[in-house]
Design goal:
CATH architecture of the largest domain: 3-Layer(aba) Sandwich
Largest sheet: 7 strands, mixed
Strand order of the largest sheet: 14-13-12-15-16-20-17
Strand content: 15-25%
CATH topology of the largest domain: Rossmann fold
Helix content: 25-40%
Radius of gyration: 27 Å
Number of strands: 20
Shape: elongated
CATH superfamily of the largest domain: Vaccinia Virus protein VP39
CATH class of the largest domain: Alpha Beta
Length: 418
């Protein structure tokens, strides 16, 4: 029995060779034989031109351009008819390459993959660096913000980013700097372009200089010397209030914050709203624990909004501050996976619940009993937190000073009961 997705063909037929090229060269005798024996050769105009002398004079050539689905249909039909097909690709076609989409169409059991060196391996080779501890991120076919979050959430000391026409190296570099990626002497960066071609260029610099430059969009951006961070979330949360600039009393207390973070059950990525953010302490701690989250701090007080930006920069957390009063300020935000409500009435909570993605969680904190009871009815769960902190009594010992009770509500209902 064959495991699902491993060698399960969609149809019978002749094997389909996928041959990787580097600088127009084919790697290995098996790859040469697959190309020479092909009845149909598929590739870009440059690939077809560089391999003209290696294929059979009678082989049909198909230009790899336009929508892939009709093209893969022709490949599947040729294979089904018993014709030998060779699909040309760049570098290692199984590494962010055509193998994934082709296998989804024809089945991996039909594929015979012959890789050349990948662009990432070549980029690190040109720099004289190992890359067994590097993370690789692709900016092809995905939003720039998603690629940036993938880089920022990586704990690896080196990262390679495969750039694209929509996200060329300088744009990726600028977005990384805006998200808090270190620049200057503590971290180096390089752009490797047109690897293996006569006009190959490798530029070694720093992220700030690359952000101000202009590069071939189809390149590899390499970041090295990044400070290694522990993999996964830190076990320390509920930071002291002194860790955040705040207006006196206008901050979620550390103990309440710690409970709220636990109830949020933060996913590795997604969208989080911190509504009525105040100093931004909750959203910032979420960003420290889960750098892959896209965090929106909503605050109506301009002075507090300025504090949020300052606190986020201090803790090297990337977030977006939306100035305005909820629920109106929530209208233009992407739908959330997690919401923390630190201020506002039932209408704010109702708006958050109405926009919540499937499987999402809302956590709200209240000092006023009436609001907490309404929130508990809407969310399904509530706990009251009474905290007393030890304070010195001028050498006589320690006494307990009570903080105001706070109610934490969470749901939708279905989590741990109240």
């Amino acid at each position: 029995m064959t495991a699902a997705g491993i060698g399960s063909p969609h149809h019978g037929g002749a094997p389909i060779a996928v041959v990787g090229l580097h600088g127009g060269h084919v790697y290995g005798p098996d790859a040469l034989d697959a190309l020479a024996g092909a009845d149909v050769v598929v590739g870009s105009p440059r690939q077809l031109s560089s391999t003209a002398s290696l294929r059979s004079p009678g082989a049909e050539t198909v230009v790899l351009a336009g929508p892939l689905d009709p093209l893969f249909g022709r490949v599947a039909d040729a294979s089904r008819d018993g014709r030998a097909v060779c699909v040309l690709a760049s570098g290692d076609p199984g590494f962010f390459g055509i193998v994934r989409t082709l296998a989804a169409r024809v089945g991996s059991a039909l594929l015979r993959v012959h890789p050349a060196p990948s662009a990432v391996s070549l980029a690190f080779a040109r720099l004289g660096l190992s890359w067994d501890d590097a993370a690789v991120v692709s900016a092809h076919g995905r939003l720039l913000g998603d690629a940036v979050r993938a880089v920022r959430s990586s704990s690896q000391p080196s990262v390679a980013v495969l750039t694209s026409p929509d996200s060329p190296p300088q744009v990726v570099a600028a977005a990384l700097i805006a998200a808090g990626e270190p620049t200057g002497c503590e971290a180096a960066a390089a752009v490797a372009s047109r690897l293996g071609e006569p006009d190959e260029v490798v530029t070694v610099s720093d992220l700030a200089a690359i952000a101000g430059g202009s590069f071939d969009p189809m390149s590899v951006l390499v970041l090295t010397g990044r400070a290694r961070r522990p993999a996964g979330p830190s076990l320390a949360w509920g930071l002291a209030e002194a860790e955040f600039d705040h207006r006196e009393g206008m901050i979620t207390k550390a103990e309440v914050r710690a409970v709220a973070l636990g109830k949020l059950d933060l996913p590795p990525c997604g969208v989080l709203w911190d509504v009525g953010a105040g100093s931004g302490s909750v959203g910032i701690e979420c960003g420290r624990l889960r750098p892959g989250l896209d965090i929106f701090a909503v605050e109506r007080d301009p002075a507090q909004a300025t504090r949020i930006r300052s606190n986020a920069a201090r803790h090297r957390v990337s977030l977006t501050v939306t100035e305005g009063a909820a629920p109106d300020a929530l209208v233009g935000l992407p739908d959330p996976d997690r919401v923390f409500v630190g201020g506002g009435g039932p209408e704010v909570l109702d708006a958050a619940i109405g926009r919540l993605r499937p499987g999402g969680v809302v956590v709200a904190a209240y000092a006023i009993v009436d609001r907490a009871l309404k929130a508990a009815a809407m969310l399904g769960n509530v706990v009251e937190l009474s905290v007393s902190r030890g304070v010195s009594t001028d050498g006589l010992g320690v006494r307990l000073r009570s903080e105001n009770p706070v109610f934490v509500c969470w749901g939708p209902d279905g989590g741990a009961g109240a």
